[in-house]
Amino acid sequence: MARHRNLGMNGRIMAAAIGVAGVAALAAAWTSQATPPATESAAPPAKEAPEPKPIVSQTSVPDPKLPAPVVSMDIAHASDKGAKGVNLTIDDGPDPTWTPQVLDLLKEHGVKATFCMVATQAKAHPDLVKAVVADGHRLCDHSVSHDTAMDRSSRARQSEEILDAARMITEASGGVKPLYYRAPGGAFTPYSRQIAASRGMRPLGWNVDSKDFKQPGTAAMVTTVKNEISNGPTILFHDAGGDRSQSVAALREVVPWLREQGYVFGFPVR
Known about the structure:
The protein is α/β, with parallel strands linked by helices. It is built from nine helices and eight strands. The protein has helices spanning 2-5, 9-34, 98-109, 119-124, 126-134, 155-173, 190-198, 218-228, 245-260, and strands at 85-91, 114-117, 138-141, 180-181, 202-203, 208-209, 234-238, 264-265. Strands 1, 2, 3, 4, 5, 6, 7 and 8 form an eight-stranded parallel sheet that branches.
């Protein structure tokens, strides 16, 4: 105690400086914890999803040692219908219960969508893949196994998941190739994006996640879309991976609401 009472001028100045620095450090730590990062999410087909990875714009120069891209390898979010365009994207199917209901709803409203298919599902239900194509929708490669940790896999495994899925989906469709690649959970890498783009599949992101994989209730999904559509045009729903009755019900409300707001349904840019 006596030693602290007898601090000289230099000691008092040093203590004050330490005190100011400590307060600044605490303030910085509080600010970093109080400001949440923006995230977007997706879900695996048959079980509760882990917290997904964010999808962000990833612009890069192609690797000259890899096959050259024939479409852009940047992650697409925009709509081919311009500023008032929206893109419905439907993931993880096809599913014999829910995909036909989604197709009927879209046909009723004259809306086209992009179906991001898990290859094992496509192989199991080729009639549904063909029905999607026959109705004028587009196909998207969503990998073989829907591994949300693909960004931590070897290049050989990434290639296998992407290219085997493309082949399986094409075979199930009767020869129609997927035009996009969506990494499960947004787990893209520069390598996976270039491999997909070299086969004519534009990497595909999303802007609005309905969170339907959590089954939060139809009203919650509709509210999410209404609140987040200003984030961008590409909307994520699911037609497989569990009970999708809430998803179908939400789409039944969301589709006419978007039209009422002046939006036009299109496809993601290529």
